[in-house]
């Protein structure tokens, strides 16, 4: 599993759920293109996820939404 200083990992499930109104890359080809655009090893991402900090470093509303979903899930898990 990928290491994150705060333990939050963004997974493919977060990315698929991150669809924004009128935009997003929730289909497999779209996610592959998104990963390629930002230098993400798609196989490693599918297997292990990525630290939330790496996704946040991409910036943009889609990446930030995926990161937000991962953080929210972690918060509910820790309650």
What does this structure look like?
- The protein contains 5 helices and 2 strands, in the order βαααβαα.
- The model has no long low-confidence stretch (mean pLDDT 87).
- The longest helix has 19 residues.
- Helix 4 runs antiparallel to helix 5.
- 24% of the residues are buried.
Keywords:
79 residues, mainly alpha, two-stranded antiparallel ribbon, globular
Overall 3D form = globular
Class of secondary structure makeup = mainly alpha
Rg result: 12 Å
Give the topology string: H per helix, E per strand.
Answer: EHHHEHH
What portion of residues belong to β-strands? 5-15%
Counted by DSSP, the helix tally is 5
Distance between the termini: 22 Å
The percent range for helix content is 55-70%
Count of DSSP E strands?
2
Number of domains: 1
Stretches where pLDDT falls below 50 for ≥5 residues? none
Largest beta sheet: strand ordering? 1-2
Compute the average pLDDT.
87
| Oligomeric state of the chains present here | single chain
Largest sheet: 2 strands, antiparallel
Question: Which secondary structure elements does this structure contain, and how are they paired or packed?
Answer:
Layout lengths: L8 E2 L1 H6 L10 H10 L4 H7 L1 E2 H7 L1 H19 L1
Antiparallel strand pairs: 1-2
Helix pairs in contact: 4-5
